[in-house]
Amino acid sequence: MKTAKLYLLVITMVVFVGGASAHPGHWGASEDQSWATGFGDCWSASNGGVGSNCGAAPAPVPAAADTIYWYDEDGDGVVDADDACPRTPLGVPVNSSGCTEDYDGDGVPDYLDKCPETPLGDVVDLVGCSIKIVSLEGVHFAFNSATLTNTAKSILDSVVGKINAHPSTHFTVVGHTDNKGSDVYNQDLSERRAKSVKNYLVTKGVSTSSFSVIGKGENSPVTSNDTSEGRAKNRRVDVLAR
């Protein structure tokens, strides 16, 4: 019989301890000193049976909030869990995804891009500038003229092979002027200069479908128009790979 009571006491203590860990029991005010388990059962400490007057169950103890640690390995202000570009160089501006901005969409991030407004579709070099096959400057177009000089033709002859070596590449011929004359006139002149270059290349065997032609008038100078030398540099045609 003593063994049985001891066994019962052990079970009772295990239940009590187990209940206390989840929901602490508390003493009632009855003569036999009843206590409540964390499961709401009322027990008598004197006889191991059902107790009485355990009192109201205590309010549940709220669980402690978990501590969450956020990491930002590259220090760009976007936590690693949300960072699509987790190794951005320190100090480089990023968007909400943690990636560097690329304003002109040429594949070169703005912090490396030396030509941040490259036309969409241009083939660019490592610093984000359009790759020019050839640029015709200065004396190659006389003032107010779209006629190719012999020097200009020689330069174009030298790039025919390069253009034909890239049959899947589309090329854009872009004409430019200096700032002398009206905007409307210069726009027309820049288009005529670009067409002169395209037409000459076609006579040399380049497919006409490989080209598109645009004029930018005086809107994209490469240098100041304040001097005659500067204006000569701005009277040009570029052949760009796209």
Q: Can you give a write-up of this model?
A:
This protein is α+β, with helices and mostly antiparallel strands and 242 residues long. It has four helices and six strands; from the N terminus they run αβββαβαβαβ. The chain has helices at 2-22, 150-164, 183-203, 228-234, and strands spanning 34-36, 42-44, 132-136, 171-175, 211-215, 237-241. A four-stranded mixed sheet has the order 3-6-4-5. A two-stranded antiparallel ribbon has the order 1-2. The radius of gyration is 42 Å and the shape is rod-shaped. The relative contact order is 0.10.
List its salient traits.
rod-shaped; disordered N terminus; 242 residues; 60s Ribosomal Protein L30, Chain: A; 11% strand; alpha+beta; single chain; 6 strands; two-stranded antiparallel sheet
Distance between the termini: 98 Å
Broad CATH class of the largest domain: Alpha Beta
Q: Overall 3D geometry?
A: rod-shaped
Strands of the widest sheet, in order across it, are 3-6-4-5
Helix content: 25-40%
**What fraction of the residues are assigned to beta strands by DSSP?**
5-15%
The CATH homologous superfamily of the largest domain is called: OmpA-like domain
Most strands sheet:
4 strands, mixed
Order of helices and strands: HEEEHEHEHE
What is the number of E strands? 6
| Overall pLDDT metric | 77
SS class: alpha+beta
CATH topology (fold) name of the largest domain: 60s Ribosomal Protein L30, Chain: A
Q: In the CATH classification, which architecture of the largest domain applies?
A: 2-Layer Sandwich
Radius of gyration: 42 Å
Structure annotation, total helices: 4
How many separate domains? Answer: 3
Low-confidence region ranges: 1-30
